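Ticket #4471: structure output looks truncated?

Reporter: J.K.
Steps to reproduce: submitted the chain below (257 residues) through the standard prediction queue, then opened the result file.
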Amino acid sequence: MADHSLKGKTVVIGGGAKNLGGLLARDFAKDGAKGIAIHYHSDSAKSAADETVAAVKELGADAITVQGDLTKPENVTKLFDETIAAFGGVDVAVNTTGMVLKKSFTEISESEYDTMFGINAKAAFFFMQEAGKKLNDNGKLCTIVTSLLAAFTGYYAVYAGAKAPVEHFTRAASKEFGARGISVTAVAPGPMDTPFFYGQEAPEAVAYHSSAADLSKYTKTGLTHIEDIAPLVKFLVTDGWWITGQTIFANGGYTTR
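Returned output as attached by the reporter:
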């Protein structure tokens, strides 16, 4: 019987420097992971990545940072190869990277379209592809998407549209990777109380999103908190291994289907 705990395992986290990725890195270390690779994209995130590495080491795990633009497949390969070189293999791969754009459908430029699909769909595809090649048997793969996949709304056409393919990638990968015991899932949070959310929203929109979830009055801000998502991701890459090919909506009732 395979061991589905994190004890002694190696984890790679796309976008692991801060926010949800940073919290997951710390939680995985607390739960006994042996080594954690913290990916970050730009120089501006380097200090946060270094802080996360230091925190992980204080918790008893080893850690490295790997910088790269994951819209370039060679950088995805580099991320996994450097993880394997440092720790001997990869057992768990979590991709938290993404980019949001709130804009009228008729005003979205070609370059904005290409950027959004590059970060939200292309990078996710090649991350999942590389995980399928490099994960150890009985590995776990999880990708963060968005609860807007279940929304009937405007202004997020290119963001939700670029995340939508990841649902299909998840189903297809689960079929192809399952023979090696690898489970593949996606988690769809509601708007999260992080800088990722606030940069796009006017105060009145923040007020709306903060009240839209059924359970909003039971949280500090009404939004999804990374502390509500991290336990779900941990479950899916450990005891929840029997769940595969699924997108799990975790948003307090912000959207449902």
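Triage note (M.O.): checked the attachment and the full token line is present. The chain has one domain: 10-250.
Status: closed, working as intended.
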